[in-house]
Amino acid sequence: MIDYATGGPLTALSHPVAEQLPHAVADLCRLAAGLVIQPADARAQELPASRFDENQLRPASRIVDALLAVDPAELTVARPPARRVVGTCRHFAVLTCALLRHRGVPARARCGFATYFQPGQGLDHWITEVRNAGGRWRRVDSEVLGGDLPVNAEDLAAGDFLTGGEAWVAYREGRIDATTFGVYGTENWGPAEIRGNAVRDLAALNRVEMLPWDEWGRMTASYQGTTGAEYDALMDTVAATCAADDPRELARLYASEDLTVPAGLVR
Q: How would you classify residue 119: left for phi > 0, otherwise alpha for psi between -120 and 50, otherwise beta?
């Protein structure tokens, strides 16, 4: 079984400051927005070039280490922009997931695409899911909580965010144009980016939350356009298994050679 209420390889926290965290889910979800800053926003703060390496940190514990090195205040204290850790949407989502799990709240990071940043586009994005007392997974975008986007970031509506697997199914069924799904400011658009996020999402459901640009298995070949029908059929299986959300099947599929994250990347 997959225990989403405790820290995993990349979400375990042992910092003394973590013991000062609030217990309310809403309060925990609001913290990351005051602790992380996107690289584009960080450039406006004229931070030293070395600070941008924080963008490459995978474990939440190292993200917290970097944050405390800049400002040793408790995690409940929102930092001024220049004293936040530099990271992507994945940092917001994974840090939120780690904080929730530290308090015993079932949570998981999801990799996919948000449809609320640019009209008509699905932009590469990570969010956090929180399981409520009734067993429903509520989707929360901790990066934009309290912002002015026209979404309920505390409980995203259907279609606001598509996981990699959900986007893959929509593409295969002709419900979306894959060329409008990708990474803003890059050439990574289309079916290959959707495949990549489907694999990353499967790993995240197995508590291995990788960086948005990490590649393993046949992901690189997919981006190069050299995979074919067999790999697409595997993506069909990934999408169906993630949608079914059966922990045993998620673990079984993730254990296959093409989908398991190499141990050397989980650090």
A: beta
Provide the token pair at 196: 């990549």
The closest of 246, 232, 172, 159 to 202, measured between CA atoms, is 246
Does the model's pTM come out above 0.90?
yes
Name residues of the chain where pLDDT drops below 70.
Answer: none
127 three-state secondary structure:
strand
Where do the domains of the chain lie? 16-262
Q: How far apart, in whole angstroms, are the C-alpha atoms of residue 152 and residue 150?
A: 7
Of 83, 92, 85, 72, nearest to 28 by C-alpha is 92
Please enumerate in sequence order all residues whose Cβ is within 8 A of that of 228, keeping only pairs 6 or more positions apart, or say none: none
Q: Count of CB atoms within 10 A of residue 58's CB?
A: 20
Cβ neighbours of 174 (radius 10 Å): 7
Q: Could you tell me which of 115, 136, 200, 130 has the C-alpha nearest to residue 165?
A: 200
The pLDDT score that the predictor gives to residue 1 is 85
Cα distance from N-terminal residue to C-terminal residue, the chain: 23
Instruction: Say what the alpha-carbon torsion angle 71, 73, 77, 83 is, to the nearest 10 degrees.
Output: 0
What is the amino acid identity at position 35? L
Length of the chain: 267
The residue assigned the tokens 């989403």 is 4
- The continuous run of DSSP H or E covering 162 comes out as strand 161-163
